[in-house]
Automatic annotation (TrEMBL):
One of its GO terms (biological process) is mitochondrial respirasome assembly. Keywords: Membrane, Transmembrane, Transmembrane helix. This is HIG1 hypoxia inducible domain family member 1B. The lineage of its organism: Eukaryota, Metazoa, Chordata, Craniata, Vertebrata. It comes from the Eukaryota. GO terms for cellular component: mitochondrial membrane. Pfam families: HIG_1_N. The keyword Transmembrane helix applies. Its main location: mitochondrion. It is found in: Mitochondrion membrane.
Amino acid sequence: MSANKGWWVPPEGEDSVSEKFLRKTRDSPLVPIGLGGCLLVAAYRIYRLKARGSTKMSIHLIHTRVAAQACAVGAIMLGAVYTMYRDYSKRTAQDTGEK
């Protein structure tokens, strides 16, 4: 038996989990930003849970969910706009190069 019993080692030729995460982060950098925004909003709203005043718990949780989803959707929209702009600028550069 090996000394590292319990540790998962990927098969040869496959990336480790951290390498795969870094590669996917380079491919689409706004996904971790959106996830981080969700986590920050949720953590802040949970921190502010005691100071919610007379607001019902269900209303507070709904507002927390909506704010966290807004961060994720905002990151997705920024990514889509950036991709469209990048594709448009490549296309116009190719069009001017052909003339």
